[in-house]
Amino acid sequence: MKLSILSGFCVLFLVSIALADPGPPDPISIDRQSPSILYGETPGNIYDMLLPTDPRFGLGWDTGAANAGMVIHEPDFNYGLTPADNNDGHSNGELDPFDSQLLIYFSGDDQSKGMPGTDYDNQAVRMQAAGDRFVTNGPTNITPSSAMASGAQAIIQGPVMPGGMGNFPVNILSANQHRYNEIPSIGPSAYNTYMPPTAGFTSMDDMDALELTPFRAAGTQIHNTPIYFSLDRPSPSLAGMSGADIMFSPANTTFFYLCAPAPMLGLDPADEVDALAVWDSSGQGMVTPGTDFALFSLAPGSPSLYKMIVGDANYDGVVSAGDYACIQANFGSTGVPGSVIIGDANRDGVVSAGDYASVQANFGSTGGMSAADIFVTDFTGMNMVYLPAFALGMLPTDNIDAIDVEIWAGVGAFEEQLIDQVGEDVPVPEPASLSLLALGGLALMKRRPK
Predict the structure, then answer these.
(1) In this structure, are residues 155 and 100 in contact, taking their beta carbons and an 8 Å threshold?
(2) How far is CA 91 from each of CA 141, 213, 387, 427, 440, rounded to the nearest angstrom?
(3) What is the pLDDT at residue 345?
(4) What is the tens place of the pLDDT at every residue in 288-311?
(5) Which of 64, 98, 107, 253 is most buried by its number of CB atoms within 10 A?
(6) Handedness of CA 9, 157, 177, 232 (dihedral sign)
(7) Cα separation of 440 and 417, whole Å?
(8) Is 104 strand, coil or helix?
């Protein structure tokens, strides 16, 4: 949503309608390994959240109901994609990069655990966190713009609300996956025992992009707001472009074009933008360096996560014997010092004999940034960590793969958006109990109607 300064009254009105989540459709995408893909959904479609009054509510494909399945908000071809493309992150343009109090809505992948005591952790134990929407338990303290200007990371001002298990966690469950008709079709207190019928798919749908305001108005046939998005590396529509590029589909069109190439974000073409929120002051898909901003996360394995680990020639986050072979395979490669050059262990811009010594001197070193960190860029070829993983209540080994931001409107409005908190009376089972649950789920799946 964009802010047009027409008058003092109009400014106040526009801000007031953007302060809180307006409710469904809250459009999302799902990852290509999600089990709903087996039933005809695509990783490029954008899907709706449903109201409980909708007769289709909570009817994921695993229910076997006649009207089961996710509800399309914007089909992939309506913004230039094919069924084989994976929408990795999307945004319809945020309101104000100079507002310091932002709520961060997010989702993690199916391997993410969350910090102990958080709502994310509580849902991950139930094996259904990847399709859920979570929110930071309080707003940020500084703007994306001031973070870039000062080099200071943001913190969450809170926590302000108790979580579903009666504590005050860093993150809170905001919306359970069944509201999007994702698999599994169970409430937040239940345990996921779904087993996909085909190998290579996960036991739950993975929310892969998130926006809290619609891309199209009710009754329209195509998005009447712009769509900023990224694609995963296997997507055929990249056609030589990068998974770290930001694409743009103008309102009321069925095509897209390159909006911001990876170098504008301070990224390498081998990186992959895995979650996205964009501030574009023009709203025309022509970002202005130093004026416009984006928050994003990076997919695991993106080499820019490991730029700072000296000795790590293959950019995998650890200095090990494999780095010697990487140097040999890329010997003589050159580039700009500080950029990602596979084999360049000492980061001097050339793969040479000196890199072997760098591996030896730093052998065993680990580190780097996290796929659960949220970065900020002003499109000047630079980026920095805006919120580190722990500020979101996530572990550094986790992966944030969907984000959106909303302006903080106070505790009352915030509480209204926490629509699926987990009941405090649901105990977390012992490991032996979890094994029994899994076995029971297998037996149920054998009897599940086709």
Answers:
(1) no
(2) 22, 9, 18, 37, 40
(3) 87
(4) 999 999 999 999 999 999 887 888
(5) 107
(6) positive
(7) 34
(8) strand
